[in-house]
């Protein structure tokens, strides 16, 4: 019995250390996406738009059924995508990045009273994600008409529903195992 409990506790501990992953997602409303296992959402890839204002991008994604992400949404996504150990290139290959420089950046909402938005970004050499709130006009194309007019939008569509974390599955299986072991022990004592 002790061996079983030790194995169950070890499985829960190992499963809890699993990290979120991203993968290429389905095309939704004509927009390329990536899927994040942490938020269970399909996110618009950050290389879909070029030379567009946040207002134009927001109109495009909402008409395709996406929701404009706020800072907390983006933090939940990017918090599971660490940039240490040179992981930027692998992340950019899935999320998309600027076509003219090594940069992932996109705007998030809500649009403020001043008609501004925020954005989150990381250059290839950065060790962390950066956030800038309430920075520029929603109708303004950042670096407009130049090679760096490459800012995109953080927007998502609901995923396939809540999928339990590996640690939850391990705890459920361990719980069933303990219930079964207790039932078997009671049956043996009663006989």
What is the rounded distance between the termini? 20 Å
What would you call the structural class?
alpha+beta
Largest sheet, in brief, is: 5 strands, antiparallel
Radius of gyration over alpha carbons?
Answer: 22 Å
Beta-strand proportion: 15-25%
Overview of the molecule:
The protein is α+β, with helices and mostly antiparallel strands and 191 residues long. The model is unreliable at 1-19 (pLDDT under 50). Helix 1 (2-16) runs antiparallel to helix 5 (166-190). It is built from 5 helices and 9 strands, in the order αβββαβααβββββα.
Task: For this entry, give a set of tags.
191 residues; alpha+beta; five-stranded antiparallel beta sheet; four-stranded mixed beta sheet; 5 helices; 9 strands; disordered N terminus
Set down the secondary structure blueprint.
Elements: H1 2-16, E1 22-24, E2 33-36, E3 41-44, H2 54-63, E4 67-68, H3 71-78, H4 88-95, E5 103-108, E6 116-123, E7 130-137, E8 152-153, E9 155-158, H5 166-190
Parallel strand pairs: 5-8
Antiparallel strand pairs: 1-2, 2-3, 3-9, 4-9, 5-6, 6-7
Helix pairs in contact: 1-5
């Amino acid at each position: 019995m002790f061996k079983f409990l030790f194995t169950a506790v070890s499985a829960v501990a190992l499963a809890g250390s699993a990290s979120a992953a991203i993968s290429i997602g389905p095309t939704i409303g004509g927009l390329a996406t990536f899927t994040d296992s942490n938020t269970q959402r399909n996110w618009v890839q950050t290389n879909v738009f070029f030379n567009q204002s946040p207002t134009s991008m927001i109109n495009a994604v909402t008409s395709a059924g996406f929701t404009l992400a706020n800072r907390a949404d983006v933090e939940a996504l990017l918090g599971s995508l660490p940039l240490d150990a040179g992981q930027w290139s692998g992340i950019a290959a899935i999320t998309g990045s600027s076509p003219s420089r090594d940069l992932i950046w996109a705007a998030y909402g809500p649009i403020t009273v001043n008609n501004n938005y925020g954005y989150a970004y990381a250059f290839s050499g950065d060790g962390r994600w950066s956030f800038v709130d309430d920075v520029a006009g929603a109708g303004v194309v950042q670096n407009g008409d130049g090679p760096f007019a490459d800012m995109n939008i953080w927007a998502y569509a609901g995923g396939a529903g809540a999928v339990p974390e590996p640690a939850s599955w391990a705890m459920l299986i361990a719980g069933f195992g303990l219930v079964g072991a207790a039932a078997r022990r009671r049956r043996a004592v009663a006989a």
